[in-house]
Amino acid sequence: MSANAKESMADLVLSHPFFTGIDPTLVHAMISNAEVRTYEVGEMLVREGKPAEEFFLVFEGKVALEVGEADTHRITVETIGRGELLGWSWLVSPHRWRFDARASKPTKVVAINAAAARYALSSHPAFGFQFLMKLLPVVAERLENTRVQLLDIHGR
Amino acid sequence: MDADALPATSTSPPHSTGARHPYAPRPFVVLARTRETADTVTLRIAPRSSEHRIAFRGGQFNMVYAFGVGESAISISGDPAHSEELVHTVRAVGKVTNALATLSPGSVVGIRGPYGRGWPLDAARGRDVVIVAGGLGLPPLRPTLYEIFRNREAFGRVEIIYGARTPKDLVFYDEVQTWRHRTDLRLQTTVDVAGRDWYGDVGVVTTRIPDSRFDPPNTTAFLCGPEIMMKLTAQALAQRGVPTDAIWLSMERNMKCALGFCGHCQYGPSFVCRDGPVLPYRALAPFLAVKEV
Q1: pTM here?
Q2: What φ, ψ does residue B49 adopt, rounded to 5°?
Q3: Which chain B residue shows the shortest CA-CA distance from A67?
Q4: B133 with B64, same domain?
């Protein structure tokens, strides 16, 4: 990635709500292999069981997270939209996706390489702490939402 | 009403319904029955006599009598501007509602009402309005939506969040889709779980609050749905800065007399049938935290 391309990618990543407040100089360490991707409706971003080699910042569109047994019996349990982060399996051993992610609207993301990100996090502990402190509320909120879903409030 | 406290029950006389005995239902004829979901239908009914025409406000309810079976409190889901007929959306969950849900055009039902306090729409004038409905929470809000649509310039931004268990549980589906095309409101629909044929949001309604566009201090919110949904949504709105006395919930309790006599629907110091069903979150919050109130 050229210096200009890297600078432009850093600006894009820093414009994403997840990266608000994160030290810009440290972002550069994480985005060496980052790329902008677009997905049409129905295209898969990740597949359950496959290596989690990247994570995604959603800039446009909507991504459905699907679970289930067979390909024909997948159910959507959550949708991730603009301004949200998709995926933390790349941080959790054994680094394999725990769900399918499929574009349910035309979607634009920045895909950030997991190996580069893990290296950046471990090489810059301050950055790593800052990053995890941003990620933890996302994980906590989704856990809480899942708990409410389990209540099956509409089924009562 | 003082929004700081739930209204206490009183010994004042019940709503007058003219010279009629307060428990006497008026005969209404079923004009049409529309299936909404697997267990829910919408009935359009009209009075047998024009003198029995009923004027109502959004959020009020009627006691609907299936002759020979019993009565059930059902919110009114039609347009208040068309008092020549009433619309009731009924989910078949018990003996009475099962009987109502199987009525065909030409059948006669008994109607008492309207009862209760509706949505305080005047308090929302000049402000942004957030409407959050869960499942069968949409029908009680629908009359008020019609009034907002008719007087759209009187309100700021209008944000509607409608959630259900699955896409098949969304009522008034075709009508809701027409709202999506309106440029003077924003509609978000979400379901708890879906298949690949659903292209909307998946997640509980509270997940849509952060993405909603309104000015919190200048917002009035109307919430109707399962109690836990309303509680969590009210908390999320309050956390975002919506004043707790500007968040209104429609409570559901077991109503029998609907006149504030029998006490079946008592909720803390108030009777939901007479003092509600629409009540301010500020007054409800302490009771929502208590089990089995």
Answers
A1: 0.85
A2: -120, 140
A3: B195
A4: no
Closest CA to B274 of B73, B91, B54, B137: B73
DSSP B117-149: B---HHHHTTSEEEEEEEGGGHHHHHHHHHHHH
* B144 and B279 inside one domain: yes
Q: pLDDT per residue over B164-184, tens digit each?
A: 999 999 999 999 999 999 999
* Region B138-142 average pLDDT: 96
Contact A79/B203, CB-based, under 8 Å? yes
Question: Which ipTM value was assigned to this complex?
Answer: 0.80
Least confident piece of the model among A81-95, B85-99, B271-285 = B271-285
Same domain, B138 and B215: yes
Query: What is the Cα Rg of chain A in Å?
Result: 16
Tens of pLDDT, residue by residue over B260-274, are: 788 887 888 888 888
Q: Which domain holds residue B130?
A: 121-288
Domain identity same for B148 and B250: yes
* Final residue belonging to a domain, choices B115, B132, B152: B115
Query: In this structure, is residue B229 part of a structural domain?
Result: yes
**Where among B115, B149, B172 does a domain terminate?**
B115
Interface test with B, best of A44, A76, A144, A146 (most B CBs within 10 A): A76
